[in-house]
Amino acid sequence: MADAKQERSLFWDIIKGLGIIMIVFGHTGFPGGGFVYLFHLELFFLVTGYLYNEKKYGDDPFLYFARRFGGSWPRYMFYGVLLALLHNYCFSHQLLSGVQVLYKAEDFWVSALHSVFFQSPELLAGPMWFMPLWVIAATFFSGVIYCGRRTKKWKHVTIPVLTVAAVWLGQFLVARGMSLMYHIELSFVVLPFFVLGYYLRLYAKNLWETIPVIPAVGILLVTTGLLYQCNRWGIFFDLASLNIKGLLFYPVVLLGFLWTFLLALLVERVPKLDRFTAWIGRYSFDVMALHMLVFKGLDLCMRKWYYRDPSMDISRYPSPFAPQYGIAYTVLGVLIPVSLAFFYDVLKKKIQK
């Protein structure tokens, strides 16, 4: 039992690892970014639904909110304040685009206080917009499960009905361009992915593990072709800008889930690569928070040591060089934050001892 539990946990950490790699890759602007934009963020909603502990939180959604908030807010604050501290350095080295100013003391405190409310104004904190949405959507999901449990034998009718109602409300708001605080409208839109993860755990926990390698490769190639064709048809999703193409959003994202499941299945069967990818997945928040800063650090290095042109404009966001060197930016944009977070954890454990 312990081994089986470990393997299942490893699989979902692999999913998270692949998801965060795709997020970083998508931000490089390298060819193929539109492919992963079809489903990469949504993977984290699915994983959260799958890992939901109904026994512990099913009758107390507020406790679940406290858990999700308590796990994300301190880290959001830390990275928000860190980026505020680095603002003047980035500004002085022409790393920031748009209307940016040199911070005075009061500007720093304003930025830090915004981070208290999950609203860091720092340009390089842009990818963290996702965190409050995730917390709110996860809480709504827990509320749906709570309502389902209250109806007892009608539980598995109540949950789908509430999910469909949430989708209708979310699509209604998005179709009218109504962007609410923390993108609450999107929390309704993405609720089905939490619910799907929840039902996968209930009824299809080990389904993907029954697929042999050769059929998995074949299906992976087919889904790759279908997702590529979606891009060719001009289908592109961007949650942050409310670009979800109505109900078309759901079948395409589900196709992306299948693609990722199959890829994770293959990764899981490669010794060392499985644990390496899972290791990345465990530090996905840190990668989300820091990879833009890594991009700008790489831009600075490129200007200084490769192009040797101090006057070169490298303020373009997220990076002027990432579209050309996307693979290198992806690798370093993932590994540097993961390594920093890992060594922080090691140091923390030694201090606690």
Could you outline the blueprint of secondary structure elements for this entry?
Blueprint: H1 2-28, H2 33-36, H3 42-50, H4 54-57, H5 61-85, H6 87-92, H7 105-116, H8 130-150, H9 155-175, H10 184-189, H11 191-203, H12 213-232, H13 249-268, H14 273-282, H15 284-306, H16 326-352
Order of helices and strands: HHHHHHHHHHHHHHHH
Largest sheet: none
Give the overall form.
Answer: globular
Alpha-carbon distance between the two ends: 30 Å
Low-pLDDT runs: 1-8
The figure for the number of domains is 1
Mean pLDDT: 94
| Approximate strand percentage | under 5%
Radius of gyration: 21 Å
Helical content, roughly? over 70%
Strand count: 0
Query: How many DSSP H or I helices?
Result: 16
What structural class do the secondary elements suggest?
mainly alpha
Can you describe this structure?
This protein is an all-alpha fold and 353 residues long. It has one domain. The protein contains 16 helices and no strands. The protein has helices at residues 2-28, 33-36, 42-50, 54-57, 61-85, 87-92, 105-116, 130-150, 155-175, 184-189, 191-203, 213-232, 249-268, 273-282, 284-306, 326-352. The two termini are 30 Å apart.
